[in-house]
User: Fold this.
Amino acid sequence: MGDAPNAAEAPSALVEEKIQLIDTRMAELATLRADLEVRVGTGCPLQATD
Assistant:
């Protein structure tokens, strides 16, 4: 039972890493969403705006 605290650290580190990946992906998606929102109503939403 002496290893219990150390044994819990590895899964926690993995969960923290996953949270960081999720946060990074959410930021990327927020940027993409904002870019797409700008294109709405421009006539051709698939063409990049200048």
In short: The mean pLDDT is 83. The helical segments are 4-39. Residues 15 and 21 are 10 Å apart (CA to CA).
